[in-house]
Specification:
cell wall, 32 strands, elongated, Pectate Lyase C-like, mainly beta, binds 2-acetamido-2-deoxy-beta-D-glucopyranose, 21-stranded parallel β-sheet, PbH1, about 10% helix
Length: about 400
């Protein structure tokens, strides 16, 4: 009896998502003229407008096939929940001059869902070839693939973002967005292809993503609060970063960021906080929590860098960062470093880091000799294992 009851409950739980789905009526873009190997923009725009005006849960369905799409913004507010389910592959123009700063934008929508096993292919190859940050300051100005502006109480799940010209996903001014099981892929040497960038947003949860790119897997920009990143596999790339912060005037505080249960492999950094020197305005970044992080073959597994100055940028490195970093915990971080300094805490001269705690750190150097720590303008506290040995500030 008990077993039957349990099975019944399990069946019910398994059925629940589809029951919820069943309430959605479906608009198939092929009914609006979308064709395999054709341009998707008219059909998708019409389908979106109808779904958005429907006043009941409506799914815009993009079936399996390849489509082409130029710059497009789909706007709310909508009269009811709208889901965009993509099973096909949608390709951006390969020529970067055909797009400005964004490719595909979802804006001002509440209760939105982006789902499906489909792919957004940014076709970034030509853009990366023109992107020479070592020679010009005019770099990284290509289109973000998927931009979400002022999207609230929403989900982004299962989709793949491939080979963006610049950032893959950028959330701005968003609230309560669940990002689940997404895949983000670009070559390790493609410049500025950040996986998921979040700015001025709160309540964002990223869970279970596979991200390998040429820049940060996840980056947290100014004004981001109460955001959690769990079970992300990152690499290649530049790791999971808070920042960069302190480059522009009037940036907003970053607070309450948790990075838990992530694996970072074959990457430049593991977990990082980065701020520019010579910040034009003061700002704060606090309550930053990194726990249960597995590190394989990473140059800088744990790094606070308040003299962040990437290649090809003009920095006044002698002027300190004005971003105050406090209440930071690095806990249960283990694995291997490719450089000898496995823990590097380089804080601001004018605003030393406060309340930085390291607990159970076990990072071994893959070269000959032992892993080391380096601390500047910070007096961290320690508990549990410390390999490398705790630094003396
Ligand atoms: C640290 O990691 C090494 C493997 O890299 C392992 O052999 C060792 O037992 C670990 N130490 C602790 C205290 O966990």
């Amino acid at each position: 009896m008990d077993t039957c009851l349990n099975i019944g409950v399990i069946m019910l739980l398994l059925l629940l998502p589809s029951t919820v789905n069943a309430q959605y009526s479906v608009i198939d873009v092929t009914k609006y003229g979308a064709k395999s190997n054709g341009d998707l923009s008219q059909a998708l725009t019409k389908a979106w407008n109808d779904a958005c005006a429907a006043g009941k849960p409506t799914r815009v369905f993009v079936p399996k096939a390849t489509y082409y799409l130029g710059a497009l913004t789909l706007k709310g507010p909508c009269k009811g929940p709208v889901e965009l389910q993509v099973q096909g592959t949608i390709k951006a123009p390969a020529d970067p001059r055909k797009l400005k700063d964004t490719w595909f934008v979802i804006q001002s929508v509440d209760r939105f869902i982006l789902s499906g096993s489909g792919t957004f292919d940014g076709q970034g190859n030509l853009a990366w070839k023109q992107n020479n940050c070592k020679k010009t300051s005019n770099c990284g100005l290509f289109a973000t693939s998927l931009r979400f502006n002022y999207v609230t109480n929403s989900q982004i799940r299962d989709i793949t973002s491939l080979n963006s010209k610049s950032f893959h996903m950028f959330l701005f001014g968003c609230k309560n967005v669940q990002i689940q099981q997404v895949t983000i892929t670009a070559p390790g040497n493609s410049l500025n292809t950040d996986g998921i960038h979040i700015g001025r947003s709160s309540g964002i949860n990223i869970a279970g993503a596979n991200i390998g790119t040429g820049d940060d897997c996840v980056s947290i920009g100014d004004g981001t609060q109460d955001t959690t990143i769990t079970k992300v596999n990152c690499g290649p790339g530049h790791g999971i970063s808070i920042g960069s912060l302190g480059k522009y005037p009037n940036e907003q505080p970053v607070r309450g960021i948790k990075v838990i249960g992530c694996t970072i492999s074959n990457a430049m950094n593991g977990v990082r906080i980065k701020t520019w020197p010579a910040s034009p305005s003061p700002n704060t970044a606090d309550n930053l929590y990194f726990e249960n992080i597995a590190i394989n073959n990473v140059d800088n597994p744990i790094i606070i860098d308040q003299v962040y100055c990437p290649l090809g940028t003009n920095c006044k490195a002698q002027l300190p960062s004005k971003v105050k970093i406090s209440n930071v915990i690095f806990k249960n971080i283990r694995g291997s470093s490719t450089l000898p300094v496995a823990v590097k805490l380089s804080c601001s001269k004018s605003m030393p880091c406060q309340n930085v705690h390291l607990e159970n750190i076990n990072l071994s150097y893959k070269g000959s000799g032992k892993a080391k720590s380096m601390c500047q303008n910070v007096k961290p506290s320690f508990s549990g294992t410390q390999n490398p040995p705790a630094c003396r500030a």
